Structure formats: C-alpha cells, structure tokens
Amino acid sequence: MRKITMLGTGFISDFYAMSLLGQRSRDTILNVGGHTEAGTQAFAAKWGIPRWSTNLAEAINDPETDTVVIGLPNYLHKEAALGAAQAGKAVLCTKPLAISGAEARAMLEAVEKAGVFHGYLEDLVYTPKTLKAVQAVKNGALGKVLWARSREAHPGPHSDWFWNKELSGGGAIVDMGCHCIEINRNFIGKDIRPVEAMCWAGTQVHPIEAEDSAVGLVRYENGAIGQFEVSWTFRGGMDLRDEVTGTQGTIWLNHWLRTGFEMFTAVGQGGYVAEKAEGETGWLFPVGDEPGSLGYTPMFAEMFDAAERGALPMETFYDGYVVNSIIDACYKSAQSKKWEPVQLDIWRGATGVSASVGQVEYDAQYWLMKSEVMPDGKTKVILKDKQTGQFVQKVNP
Ligand SMILES: NC(=O)c1ccc[n+]([C@@H]2O[C@H](COP(=O)([O-])OP(=O)(O)OC[C@H]3O[C@@H](n4cnc5c(N)ncnc54)[C@H](O)[C@@H]3O)[C@@H](O)[C@H]2O)c1
Prior knowledge:
six-stranded parallel beta sheet, Dihydrodipicolinate Reductase, domain 2, alpha/beta, binds nicotinamide-adenine-dinucleotide, seven-stranded mixed beta sheet, 11 helices, single chain, about 400 residues, Rossmann fold
C-alpha cells in the first residue's frame, strides 16, 4: 500500500486520483499540496484526503506519506522532485519530466543520489492497446521496426500557464511531443540511441511565443525513424494515433476518435463526453473507461508493483531525461533548420548498433526485392543480381 502526497489539484491530479482511488484500491492519498486555499481544500474534500496544504514542502514532508506524485505545471517539477528526493520518498512525476534536458538530468541525478524509487508518468505508453502492441513488436511481429509515427493534436490546452513559454518550457512540442517521442521509443526500442532530430515548428493560429504546431523526425542509431506530429490547432476533439511499420508488418492505433463507441445525438448526452471533445451534440466518440483507456490506471499499477518488488518501473526519470534531450534537439533544429544531434551525456542503452536489415535470398545468383501477384494472376518477382547489382524481373505463371 502506498501512502501518497499528491502535488497539484488540477486536470491531471483529478485523473490520477480517479485512477488511484476509483477502484477498490490499496493505495491512499493522505495529503495534497496546491496553489490556492480554496482549490486545494476543495480537492481534498472531493477525494476524501485528510490533509492539505498550500505549502508544497509541507505537503511533501508529511511524515505519514511515502510517495510523492507530481501533477504541477512544468516549471515546478524540478523543485518538487528535488524536495521529494531530499525527503527520501518515492517520486512519480507527470510529463514532461522537465522543461529542458539539463533540468531533467538534475532531477535524475537527485533521485538516484537519494536512492529513491522514481517513475515517469508517461501514461500513453501504458494504454491497454499500446501495451499489447509494444509486446507484439517485442515478440517480433513486425520484424525490425523501421518507422514509428505518433500524432497528438487537439484545440489547445486547458489552463493559462501552458500558453506561457516561461512556465511551460515551450508549446506543443514540449507539451505533446513528449508523449509521441516516448511512444516511438517504446516501439523502436528504448535501448536504441536517438542520434539526431529535424523539426519544423510553427505558430499558425495563436498569438503566442511558442509553437502551436510541429512535425519532427528523430533518427535512431539502428536506422529507424521516429516521426511526431503535434498541434494545438486541431479541430474536432483529440486526435491520438500511432502507426508502426516494420520489415514484416504494420500496426495502426487510434486511441480517441475511433474507440469503437460512436454516438449521434441531436440533443446532447448530458455533460462531459471525453477529454478535449469539442461539443456534446452530433456525432460523439465517448470513452467508457477514460482513466484506463489513457493508461493512467495500468501505469500506477505497474509503477507501484515495481516499487514493491524493489525493481525499476517501465518508465523512469531516465526515460524522461532522454525525452527532454530529444525535445531540446528538436527546438534547436526548428531554429537552425538543420539536423541537430541529440545531446545525451548519460546514455545507458546499446552502442554501435548496425542499421542493416539483411537481404532475402532468392537463389544463389539473386537477392529477392519483392514478389507480387499481378491482375493477370501471374506472379512477378523483382530480383537483384548479387554480383552485377543489376535488377531483373521474372514472371512466374
Ligand atoms: N496525459 C498526461 O499525462 C497529462 C495530461 C494533462 C496534463 N499533464 C501534466 O500535468 C501537469 C499539470 O497540468 P494540469 O493539466 O493538471 O494543469 P492544471 O492547470 O489543470 O493544474 C495545475 C495545478 O497545479 C497547481 N499549481 C499551479 N501553480 C502552482 C504553484 N505556484 N504552487 C503550487 N501549486 C500550483 C494547482 O493545484 C493547479 O490546479 C503538467 O506538467 C502537464 O503537462 C499530463
């Protein structure tokens, strides 16, 4: 059983509380730290939390709690994580881990020096669909992953501080690119080093200093490409899709707008539909179990099980640090308009991984390029001569 201090009383803390307390949970929230007295007290009352404080240090140092869950605006993550590490408590931090790679590194070093359990709350790699898809990829279902594409787009964040670059660390890239980058890493392989990034970032609609849309490419040492597309300008709800292509197969995931639950109503369904839904009439895409579908419930279960076994969870501060470092390279590239190296002073994965995929042999003379059944019913094979390099085709009846 975990005894939790929750930091933050907003959108994500509500989802975390739903996941932690919504079922017949063994875990409990004993203290909540927030910003305003009214908001913090109201959150405590709503979730039956016995103590609350507007002083974050006081909430962190509650002598009865053993775990700190950080659901604060991005610029407060570092201070909160360092405070929790100093208090000797397990610390779980929402995404993005930090507002830069350097800040994320300081957080990683602090938790490791203190020897406390740490988890990076990247819920979207814990969605039931993603967990199953990643396992299939690990089992070899797609062969070698060549390209992973992750897209997150919605009409923009729900609180003022996200829009202020000083407080958030950037726009759609740091806010949503962090999800996409980590999803892609999970499919490509987290021990494969991200080498360099190329990114376009634009401010297409909103009067803000940060980007409200971006597209990025991350090249991995094994030749795979991770592509992310993020936007705060998308209309129609929240578009959460992933596509993975390998030498032997493909996976397409649609997490939000095509969930298998589609409803038309001319009069409305009586309130909240799903995160970032833009209306409550017409065609709707409700979600049955939102904290489960977004991965929050499986995420806490995996993290706390790992903590109790004395093991690392699937997502640690180290992963958050790698993601922030990739984001730094993306911001540099958006400025320089060039590929920029991903600066990773701490790299714990594989090194010197080859990008080669190996060829399929047709016979002693040829490599097989491809084989296709044509409209006339005959099979055409395209071959490459191993010695001369010449391409030839054969039609087999
Ligand atoms: N899918 C996800 O994992 C996901 C989704 C949404 C948000 N987030 C992350 O959660 C964090 C919080 O976002 P949110 O959507 O809950 O924002 P929010 O604005 O809804 O809530 C933020 C909360 O932080 C607290 N707070 C704000 N300023 C504070 C201060 N100076 N001192 C103490 N407490 C303060 C308040 O309790 C406030 O309600 C962000 O890092 C965001 O990126 C993650």
